[in-house]
Amino acid sequence: MLTVTTRRCEPDITVVQLSGRVTLGRESGQVEAVVIKAIESGARKLVIDLANVSYIDSTGIGIVAFCFGRISKAGGEARVAGAQGLVLDVFRITRLDSVIRFFP
User: Fold this and answer.
1) Left, alpha or beta for 42 (phi > 0: left; psi -120 to 50: alpha)?
2) Is the pTM of this model over 0.85?
C-alpha cells in the first residue's frame, strides 16, 4: 500500500512524502497527480521524501523521473531525500542517482 502526503515548508518548497511500496498499480498514479497539483499551485522546489518507502520497482523509478521532468519544465528544481537500502540501490543500478540529486 502506498500513501502520499504533501506539506509546504516555504511558499515555493513542497515536500512530497511517500510511504509504503511504489509499484505498478492504481495507487502509484496519485504521486504524479500530487506533483502536478503542487506545480500548478506555484511550487518551484520539490523534495520527494522516500525515507518511508520499503520497495520501489520500475514503475516507481519512472514516476520519480516523470516528476523531475515536470518540475524542470516548470522552471523548478527537485531533490530526493531519505532513500536508503534497496530503494537507493535501485536508483544507483539505473544510474539515476547521477542525474537526480539525492540527500540522506
Assistant:
1) left
2) yes
